[in-house]
Amino acid sequence: MDLTYWALLIMFLVYLLFNIKKVYYALIGGFTEYGVLFMIGLITFILIFIIGCIIGVVAPKYGWIPQWAFIAYIVGFFVCRFLFGIPK
């Protein structure tokens, strides 16, 4: 991995280390506000995108996976906004 990847990974880990409580409360709040099915779907999309990005870097012929996961994430975002509205 290049130096840039290591720098971004370290920045993410430092953010997670100092804000784990906020991340935890955001996840729990999401489950209580939007429901279990929605949050599991959201987490699934996020994991597919992250794993797809890793696979796309390691094996470039599978670079279509993160692209389609990102497209599905955007479509899901707009469908969620039309179904649930914008939270206040």
Largest sheet: none
Radius of gyration: 16 Å
Mean pLDDT across residues = 83
Low-confidence parts:
none
Return the string of H and E elements: HHHH
Count of helices?
4
The structural class is mainly alpha
How would you describe this protein?
The chain is mainly α. Helices cover 85% and strands 0% of the residues. The chain is built from four helices and no strands. The longest helix is centred in the middle third of the chain and has 23 residues. It starts with a helix and ends with a helix. The model has no long low-confidence stretch (mean pLDDT 83).
Layout: helices, strands, pairs:
Elements (H helix, E strand, L loop, with lengths): L2 H16 L1 H15 L1 H23 L5 H21 L4
